[in-house]
Amino acid sequence: MKHLAETFDFSKVGPPVTVEGLVKINNPDLKIGEIIGVIFRTYIFYAAGIALLIYLIIGGFQFMLSRGDPKATQAAQAKITNAVIGFVIVFLAFLIVQLVGQLFGLQDTLFVKTFK
After folding, report:
1. Rounded Cα distance, 22 and 32, in Å
2. For a disulfide at 109, which of 37, 59, 96, 101, Cβ 3.0-4.6 Å?
């Protein structure tokens, strides 16, 4: 036992990093960027898709219930248009971040996984 204590390098031992809640990660070498990346890849796009669906449904109901009123029809069309534009912005932001990561040589990007 004494020999084990003398040969073991205790400088590399630390408390495990655990993020409870959205992501459960137990890795002492974990970086904050990796945590944010996991959260964005797994949850943000699902939330954006669900928000798009909800806004499309609400805009569709408003359009049907406008009964020919030009102001209500324009408001419903604007809601649908804004929902689609917001989803496109989220999707393009993801692609731009992945492209910049690829240009700077990051290994864990969508393009590296797709084109290998």
Report:
1. 14
2. 101
pLDDT band per the 50, 70, 90 thresholds, residue 18: very low
CA quadruple 115, 43, 58, 86: dihedral positive or negative?
negative
Total count of domains within the chain: 1
DSSP helix/strand/coil, 52: helix
Q: Is the pLDDT of residue 28 over 70?
A: no
Nearest to 78 by CA among 94, 96, 55, 98: 55
For 66-114, where are the alpha helices, taking DSSP H only?
Answer: 70-103, 110-114
The domain containing residue 23 runs over which residues?
Answer: 2-114
